[in-house]
Design a protein that fits this description.
Blueprint (H helix, E strand, L loop, with lengths): L1 H8 L15 H21 L3 H12 L25 H5 L8 H14 L4 H16 L7 H5 L2 E2 L2 E2 L15 H15 L12 E4 L11 E6 L2 E5 L1
Antiparallel strand pairs: 1-2, 3-5, 4-5
Helix pairs in contact: 1-2, 5-6, 5-8, 6-8
């Protein structure tokens, strides 16, 4: 782009291009191209070598336009190949994070620590799908602690039991899952589910929403 600009600004040669009246379109086009390339070469020859080098550097990104140099915060590392098993999680560093991470890890721990790794990832998906939906609060903690219909959206919040995380191994696993999901791991398990329940209950909303999948002891639904 920058080199083309130099050609345009280096003289009015292009204004002198004569369009051929030949009946052979190919010949006309070839003649025009040869003329244009010849003038481009002439114009470039008038530009100092150091100026050409500077322009080339700018095209490669050194002085690119501001919209090309938009600063994007680097996303935390998420493995390119996700697996839903304990061996995969064992290779992930111990996780930590802010209040949103802790709320998601607690939801995974209390709602699904007895489920498979796949089932725990699925619960994290539900929480984040709600965060993305305009029908629910805009952050993880608000979603997890949301009330409704005289109770809580997530039963562990108001079941009267302690919310202490006493199973260290399960807590570390939940923390890693929460970290991966918050960092952008794919939500590939629940097809956009916003609800789930155990197979032993039948909440009223289950008959109104589309069931997306079943994982372990949980059935998942999209509102």
């Amino acid at each position: 782009m920058a080199l083309a600009a130099v050609v345009v600004l280096s003289g009015a040669a292009f204004a002198d291009v004569t369009v051929s009246q030949s009946n052979d379109p190919a010949a006309a086009f070839g003649g025009q191209m040869a003329s244009l390339l010849g003038m481009e070469k002439t114009a470039l020859g008038r530009v100092a070598p150091e100026r050409l080098a500077a322009l080339a550097d700018s095209v490669e990104g050194g002085n690119a336009p501001s919209r090309e140099r938009k600063t994007v915060e680097a996303a935390p590392s998420v493995p390119k190949l996700m697996r839903y098993d304990n061996a995969f999680l064992a290779g992930i560093p111990v996780a930590s994070g802010n209040a949103q991470w802790e709320c998601l890890a607690q939801a995974v721990y209390h709602e699904a620590r007895g489920e498979s790794v796949r089932g725990q990832f699925a619960v994290a998906e539900v929480v984040l799908n709600r965060v993305d939906s305009p029908a629910y609060p805009p952050n993880v903690c608000a979603v997890v602690h949301q009330g409704g219909s005289g109770g809580c959206q997530f039963s562990y919040i108001c079941d009267g039991k302690s919310d202490a995380t006493t199973d260290r191994e399960a807590w570390l696993r939940a923390g890693k899952i929460a970290r991966l999901m918050l960092d952008g791991a794919p939500r590939a398990l629940t097809q956009g589910a916003t609800h789930f329940h155990t197979v032993g209950v039948r909440p009223p909303w289950a008959s109104r929403f589309a069931r997306t999948t079943a994982i372990g002891a949980h059935l998942f639904y999209r509102q």
